[in-house]
């Protein structure tokens, strides 16, 4: 029985990639170091909805409805979203906008001790603008904001999964 060369090459490549430790980045790769977590945000906040989806997808952390009994409490420190003019044409009409999102957060325990120090995520996207396609550009802007929210939550999850939480019982060095 003869094995096709392409199949042999594909198996060899797969073995090589698996042997080097390569792993696709995904939502399941971000296991959090907490058993239970409370997200101190309104239920309808986009960040809360997306965070809950990602944490539930990881499967290692349970999200609680109350802060009592939570090993970690996610707190939003700041959320600013700006739309600024990036460039104008010869007639003085806007050609491009810049969408900016700055988000600050920290993780504490029930006693108020900081487990993960304040982190800031800054994102920006540029969007062209055309007076004749206002509705289409408005829809495009909404999709960019949604994409930025998704990217924000991905970065938060990566930072939470990679950050070694401080031991709250250990005294800090001054």
UniProtKB/TrEMBL annotation:
<keyword id="KW-0732">Signal</keyword>
<comment type="subunit">
    <text>Component of the lipopolysaccharide transport and assembly complex. Interacts with LptD.</text>
</comment>
<keyword id="KW-0449">Lipoprotein</keyword>
<keyword id="KW-0564">Palmitate</keyword>
<protein>
    <recommendedName>
        <fullName>LPS-assembly lipoprotein LptE</fullName>
    </recommendedName>
</protein>
<dbReference type="GO" id="GO:0009279">
    <property type="term" value="C:cell outer membrane"/>
</dbReference>
<dbReference type="GO" id="GO:0043165">
    <property type="term" value="P:Gram-negative-bacterium-type cell outer membrane assembly"/>
</dbReference>
<keyword id="KW-0472">Membrane</keyword>
<dbReference type="InterPro" id="IPR007485">
    <property type="entry name" value="LPS_assembly_LptE"/>
</dbReference>
<dbReference type="GO" id="GO:1990351">
    <property type="term" value="C:transporter complex"/>
</dbReference>
<dbReference type="Pfam" id="PF04390">
    <property type="entry name" value="LptE"/>
</dbReference>
<comment type="function">
    <text>Together with LptD, is involved in the assembly of lipopolysaccharide (LPS) at the surface of the outer membrane. Required for the proper assembly of LptD. Binds LPS and may serve as the LPS recognition site at the outer membrane.</text>
</comment>
<dbReference type="GO" id="GO:0015920">
    <property type="term" value="P:lipopolysaccharide transport"/>
</dbReference>
<dbReference type="GO" id="GO:0001530">
    <property type="term" value="F:lipopolysaccharide binding"/>
</dbReference>
<comment type="similarity">
    <text>Belongs to the LptE lipoprotein family.</text>
</comment>
<keyword id="KW-0998">Cell outer membrane</keyword>
């Amino acid at each position: 029985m003869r094995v096709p060369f392409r199949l042999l090459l594909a198996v060899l490549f797969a073995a090589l990639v698996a042997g080097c430790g390569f792993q696709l980045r995904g939502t399941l790769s971000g296991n959090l170091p907490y058993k239970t977590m409370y997200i101190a945000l309104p239920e309808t906040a986009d960040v809360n909805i997306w965070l809950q989806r990602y944490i539930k997808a990881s499967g290692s952390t349970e999200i609680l409805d109350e802060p009592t009994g939570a090993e970690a409490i996610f707190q939003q420190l700041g959320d600013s979203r700006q739309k600024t003019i990036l460039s104008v044409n010869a007639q003085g009409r806007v050609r491009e906008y810049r969408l900016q999102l700055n988000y600050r957060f920290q993780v504490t325990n029930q006693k108020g001790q900081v487990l993960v120090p304040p982190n800031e995520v800054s994102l920006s996207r540029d969007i062209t603008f055309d007076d004749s396609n206002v509705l289409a550009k408005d829809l495009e802007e909404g999709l960019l904001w949604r994409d930025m929210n998704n990217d924000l939550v991905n970065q938060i999850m990566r930072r939470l999964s990679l950050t070694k939480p401080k031991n709250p019982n250990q005294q800090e060095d001054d």
